[in-house]
Design goal:
Length: 148
């Protein structure tokens, strides 16, 4: 009988630890929950994250008529046109096309799609063909950890 109490207590502790881990994972670093951000809020958050990582001349484009790009930035002499996508599902080809068009419109060297999610297989194929960088949710988490 004594062992049952110990087992129940150990299980309760494991459940609490698992719940805490899930909360930290869902909220990301410093209590930031990217999944609940509004689109424009996500863009400004990403712009600030880029600044903290050494990007210069970081500019969030206007909410409309942005020609497929949300952030313009430079780092180490390379200019970037970045399309931000805060989605609840994997990012598709349309975002890649937007970054491609925006890169050329703003005459930048590199086009990027930055997302809290991952990419569909067709999006990956299109990005390779159009030479668009894909910064997925895993990469975004790495960037967040780096600036802590």
């Amino acid at each position: 009988m004594e062992y049952i109490g110990i087992i129940v207590g150990a299980c309760a502790i494991l459940l609490i630890v698992a719940a805490l881990f899930a909360i930290v994972r869902a909220t990301g670093n410093r209590g930031i929950n990217l999944d609940t951000m509004e689109g424009h809020e996500f863009e400004y958050y990403c712009a600030e994250l880029l600044r903290k990582r050494g990007f210069e001349e970081v500019e969030v484009t206007p909410g409309s008529k942005d020609y497929g790009v949300d952030i313009l930035a430079e780092k180490d002499g390379v200019s970037y046109a970045i399309q931000c996508k805060r989605y609840a599902a994997p990012v598709g080809v349309k975002a890649i096309q937007e970054a491609y068009a925006g890169r050329d419109y703003y005459d930048k060297m590199v086009g990027v799609v930055l997302t809290n999610q991952y990419f569909t297989k067709p999006a990956v194929e299109a990005a390779k063909k159009l030479k668009i960088l894909m910064w997925d949710g895993g990469y975004l988490e790495e960037m967040m950890e780096e600036v802590e």
